[in-house]
Design brief:
By secondary structure, the chain is α/β, with parallel strands linked by helices. The N terminus is likely disordered. The chain folds into 2 domains: 66 residues, DNA polymerase, domain 1, CATH 1.10.150; 282 residues, Aldolase class I (TIM Barrel, Alpha-Beta Barrel), CATH 3.20.20.70. It is elongated. The strands form 2 sheets. It has a 10-stranded mixed sheet, with helices on both faces. Strands 5-6 form a two-stranded antiparallel ribbon. The two termini are 38 Å apart. 35% of the residues lie in helices and 18% in strands. α2 packs across α3, α7 packs parallel to α9 and α10 packs parallel to α11.
């Protein structure tokens, strides 16, 4: 038998045990039946994994010791380790997680009055190549599994105080979420279950660089997720310079897919627009954006550029951002300027992962 008190993440990694988070509730129920364990035990285990925030098998005190030992011998608890944990002055927290293959991803919890939002990743690295983003500087390594996506959520949930709970999830971390729908959607579906977080789809936002066919696929699923499209420019020439994959897509196709998403779900699409000094932040750019989005079901979220030492691109001033916002709002396009959270811990995606990548390369 395995001593559940001494059993660690590294032990599980060495034994190559599957993670418990890979199993849906029906799959865990079947595992119980296959091992002559009463089916209701699966619900107890799920309650410990999710709302009760257990960190080890040992904490699952209403389970028989024999069952806990069998679980420890059959599954790893977490396959990811917290490599770094940073806390900002505004109580934003960021985790750098080391995965089973020694790759790294980041996830963040952001607090506001009456709202606790987590931001999760979907890939190790990114293939989109946006010029202002640190996440893709080393390219794409691989997709995250459904279990690895869920582990980010549960790792962050365990940072919260007893009275706190996650109210919103944004899938805006490292990677292009729609390029990993096959693993993302089962993870989100798991969140809706009553024995996990009982989390409504309207409180989940999925961000994308704009992959039209994948946007349509997401729309046809029938869930009312919020969709955020990273637009960043009002014409194809400039957008292709900022977001290279646009060369094979085009803004018009993205807008048509976004309108289809609205028609299928009734959810207004948010267009994210990172303000880059001297590149896309002029009044002329704002007026072109008005022309592009006028009479569409759109909300624009202006994002102050996060400084990254490896990228020679600067963010716009607050005055420039306000001027840009006023032009859009005056034209009837609902526009907000995103609050920057966790500024003193570089809470933008990829900023903590990059040094680790560079250390690995040097090593």
């Amino acid at each position: 038998m395995i001593d559940t008190k001494e059993f660690t993440v590294l032990d599980a990694m060495e034994l190559k045990l599957p993670t418990i988070f890979a199993l849906s509730l029906p799959e865990l129920e079947q595992w119980c039946l296959d091992h002559q364990i009463k089916k209701y035990r699966a619900g107890q285990i799920y309650r410990w994994l999710f709302p009760m925030r257990a960190k080890s098998w040992e904490e699952m005190t209403d389970l028989p010791l024999e069952l806990r030992e069998k679980l420890a011998a059959s599954f790893s608890f977490f396959t990811s380790e917290i490599e770094s944990h940073q806390i900002a002055s505004d109580r934003t927290e960021k985790l750098l997680l080391k995965l089973h293959d020694r790759e790294f991803v980041e996830c963040v919890v952001m607090r506001e009055p009456n709202r606790t939002t987590i931001c999760i990743s979907t890939q190790v690295g990114c293939a989109m190549g946006c010029v202002f983003c640190a996440s893709g500087l080393a390219g794409l390594t691989r997709n995250l599994t459904t279990a690895e996506i869920l582990e980010q959520i549960t790792q962050l949930d365990r940072l919260l105080d007893e009275q706190e709970k996650i109210t919103n999830i944004v899938v805006m971390g490292i990677g292009e979420p729609l390029a990993n729908l096959a693993n993302l959607l089962p993870a989100l579906e798991r969140l809706h279950e009553g024995k996990t977080f009982n989390f409504g789809s309207r409180r989940i936002t999925i961000s994308t660089v704009g992959l039209p066919e994948k946007i349509r696929e997401l729309a046809r699923i029938g869930k009312r997720y919020s969709l955020a499209v990273s637009l960043h420019a009002s014409n194809d020439k400039l957008r292709t310079e900022i977001v290279p994959v646009n060369k094979n897509i085009g803004i018009r196709e993205i807008l048509e897919a976004a309108e289809y998403y609205f028609e299928q779900t009734g959810r207004r699409v948010t267009y994210e627009y990172v303000l880059l000094s001297g590149i896309n932040d002029s009044p002329r750019d704002a007026k072109q954006l008005v022309t592009l989005l006028k009479n569409r079901h759109a909300h624009v979220n202006l994002i102050p550029m996060n400084a990254i030492s490896l990228l020679d691109i600067g963010g716009s001033s607050q005055e420039t951002a306000r001027t840009f916002s006023h032009i859009l709002n005056d034209a009837g396009i609902v526009t907000t300027i995103r609050k920057r959270k966790g500024a003193d811990i570089d809470a933008a995606c990829g900023q903590l992962r990059l040094p680790k990548i560079h250390d690995q390369i040097k090593g």
